[in-house]
Amino acid sequence: MDLPKNNVFKLLGLLLIILIIAGGIITLSTGYLTISADEDEESAYKISEIKKQALNVNYTDLCEHNEEYVDKIIHFEGKIIKVNESNNIVYLTMATKKDTSGNYGDNIIEVWGRDNKFAQNSIVNVYGTYMGLKWAGADYENETIPSIHSIVIE
């Protein structure tokens, strides 16, 4: 088959366009670029799985056996006592020890993530990945406090 060079390039270009279109159709039909109508249901499922998987850890045990919990999903309930934001990351300082009157104080943890809808004095449940002990600064009696990368805060 003797075709002039221009026709060969035109034919190759047409073939490339057909392959690109076919690839796009296949990709869309398999759902890679489509948004699932069940996205909220899927998200709710993931959240319930995270809650089931989360460990309810005693604060003292967490501090004393820090290494055992790093990279595990844990759960804490507490009161937000300080909110800071830096570089689109929100840092919540929380008191997790409840006294007999139901007030929170002591057993301070730091929670960080991108969710900024919570205000100081809110009582929240945090489910997240334990990152280890972190320097707390001069504000707190302890030199280090537990740090949690939040997955779910409610």
Protein architecture, described:
With 154 residues, this protein is an alpha/beta fold. The protein has a domain at 54-153: Beta Barrel (OB fold (Dihydrolipoamide Acetyltransferase, E2P)), CATH 2.40.50.140. It is built from four helices and six strands, in the order H-H-E-H-H-E-E-E-E-E. It has helices at residues 5-29, 39-53, 59-64, 66-69; strands at residues 55-56, 73-86, 89-95, 108-113, 123-135, 144-153. Strand 2 and strand 3 form a beta hairpin.
Give the tags.
transmembrane, 154 residues, transmembrane helix, OB fold (Dihydrolipoamide Acetyltransferase, E2P), Nucleic acid binding OB-fold tRNA/helicase-type, five-stranded mixed barrel, single chain, elongated, alpha/beta
Helix coverage percent: 25-40%
Rg over CA atoms: 26 Å
Order of helices and strands: HHEHHEEEEE
- CATH domain topology of the domain at 54-153: OB fold (Dihydrolipoamide Acetyltransferase, E2P)
Main pleated sheet? 5 strands, mixed, barrel
Q: So what's the overall shape?
A: elongated
The CATH superfamily title of the domain at 54-153: Nucleic acid-binding proteins
What's the number of helices? 4
